[in-house]
Amino acid sequence: MKLPWSSPPEPVPDAASAPASDPVPRRGFLKAGLGGIGLVGAAAMGMGLDRPTKLLATSPQSHGGHGADAMPGVVGEVDHAKNGFNPTELLTDFDAGEVSVLPNGQTLHEYTIVARNQTIEIVPGIDFPAWTFNGRIPGPTIRVTEGDRLRIHFFNAGDHPHSMHFHGIHPGGMDGVFDAESGVVAPGGKFTYEFDAEPFGVHLYHCHTAPLAKHIAKGLYGAFIIDPVGGRPNAAHELVMVMGGYDIDFDGKNEFYTVNGIPFHYDRDRHPIKLRTGELVRVYLINALEYDPINSFHLHANFFHYYPTGTSQTPSEFTDTIAQMQGQRGILEFRYKYPGQYMFHAHKTEFAELGWTGVFEVEG
Description:
Layout: H1 26-34, H2 80-83, H3 87-90, E1 94-95, E2 98-101, E3 107-123, E4 126-133, E5 139-145, E6 149-156, E7 165-166, E8 190-196, E9 201-206, H4 212-217, E10 221-227, E11 237-246, E12 256-259, E13 273-276, E14 281-287, E15 295-299, E16 304-308, E17 317-319, E18 321-324, E19 329-334, E20 340-345, H5 349-353, E21 357-363
Parallel strand pairs: 1-5, 3-6, 5-10, 11-14, 13-21
Antiparallel strand pairs: 2-3, 3-4, 6-8, 7-9, 9-10, 11-12, 14-19, 15-18, 15-20, 16-17, 16-19, 20-21
């Protein structure tokens, strides 16, 4: 079936079509460049990179002349309009779908989600042949209440089989894993997933077709939030942060790390997240990173209450750093006592220096 709104799929290079080796290992070059002497074009270095147009690094002057920064960054800004999404907007873009009431009185949330090939500019000058849900990385943040019915009309406009696998409780025929009957969709095909939302918590969904790591790493993942009946205590800010990464040379190793799709986006002289002292902040944190065994979140000059998976309303600990394996998630709640600029980032320094970093800008 040809989908009328889909453009012809773009060619998607994979590991088999990538160069056997680079003159200098890509990951090593990025680490040296981002932590080193300044703005460097890959072509000028004679590296002959075929896919990225140039690699960019930071200098102490690249952040508004403030002098040396705590973390590296990149010069310039990606084209968010061309990408089709902006990570600042994704922080608070909760999607309830089309809401109606079934004859039995149950609330129904209905969604249309399309998987497709899409080129994303991940840092200035570097494009990545991504696979997306509804044209964004991460995909739509699906948000419902426990006991509601979900009905997701899924269309595959890509050139590989895809599916949607939801973390939660549902029938095996809605799991998106084994075959067409359970929701694995061939290119040009469609499937409707329908199930009741349970248990309450912060969950995720992702493609679950082989090779699984590649399908997730190329962008087919998103947040799935189920609120408890009656909701949680009111918060001044509720923010979704989905951690991921990019393997730009298809060697099974990440060259960039990110929250909500674009490395370095929330840096202090780019798009810091603005808060006020005393406000309750709730972060829905999800680790969708592949090719690395673990990820983490560290909050500067503060502690947070942590609710693993969000399935309890009693926090498990009060801390400033937590670790998550792939697919793990949780809720963080905190308030800032003092105004100022405060970093948040992966506490593995390499991840932070390659993009997984940001700043809360707190006013009194």
